[in-house]
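Task: fold both queries, return tokens.
Query 1:
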Amino acid sequence: MRIGQLAKRTGVSHRALRHYEAQALIESTRQENGYREYGHATVERVLWVRELIDCGFSTRQIHGLLAYLE
């Protein structure tokens, strides 16, 4: 799915999604035309990141927690 679809499904802005990707909290692949393509599992990851941010975690702290998920 493209960034607009991901934003719509999660309620998170395009800008925030690009920030999450820059912080290595989510990943995308690039299509030949340069558009980002996200997997369906990214929806759950974004919602998880959003919950942690709402609880007061920083994106740096969340990045540190990712090692325990994988």
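Query 1 returned. Query 2:
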Amino acid sequence: LPDGKSWSTANADADLYIPESEVKYVDDVDNVHRWTTDTKYYWPTAGSLTFFSYSPYDISAKVDCSSSNGIVISDYNVDDNQEHDVMVADLSADQTTNGTNNGLTGVPTVFRHKLAQIVAFRFNTEEDYGAANATHKAGDKEIIVTGISINDLRTTGTYQSGHMVGATSLGNWQNWTGSKNYIWYAAANSGVEIEYNDAGGYTTSVGPGGTGAVANGYLLVLPQPFSDNDTQVITLNYTIRTYTSDTDSTDDDVTVSIPLFDIHGEAGFLMNKKITYNFTIGLDRIWWAPSVVEWENETHSITINQGNVTVNSQ
């Protein structure tokens, strides 16, 4: 933009100064570590530059940038790119010379994650049900996690940053298509027994594992809204093992589906969030409800008349 104009009010008047270019880390330029492009670009002697940046550069075929819409990433399939984070930097507007950021000299480029990430499922039991006992007695119970899945997540969408992307204007995802059920954990054998934590923490963590489970230690997901009639749910499978003696027990298998709407609300998965789910699993304790039936009255009338006895009982 020429002198006297700012991006917030005159972005439509801006001319392209640097075409889409890959910024790479160079180990040594004049004995200084730098982020730079293969083509050298220089600050104009008048006016200002406004910068949009995204990462990774590998998705450039899906990216367009304009002064009106900012960065648009079209038809991005998160399922095909589980090893690639997507980031867009805050707008760096009306710059006239190199600034500083993160100990570096250059255009301040602060990235924010535009996906969400599920990173952990953690568990505690509501009480100590005797699972930690060295020897078990009748009534002791163990709760064992055998499966976790996240179902019907949308996998493809389009991101648009807008022309003022930043901390208070993150952009938005839209036009979602496709869906997939993800297995987080599938017990190959006995599952993961939940260790009770009396301090209320979640010391039992169940990481990805089993046939068909997510490949990484996390699951990248598209930011997406939920509604209360969606089939987007977390399905949890666990076994309640009840001991009848130290060596004998019976197992009851339980499956629970929790709507993601109930957890996240309508807003759903949000950008730049690392999501941990903490579960507390309880049992339906047996209680007693005693009462006492009132005494019933019993009366006997006995009449004695000159040795003759008459009895009248009620």
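Both queries returned. Flag for query 2: The two ends are 109 Å apart (CA to CA).
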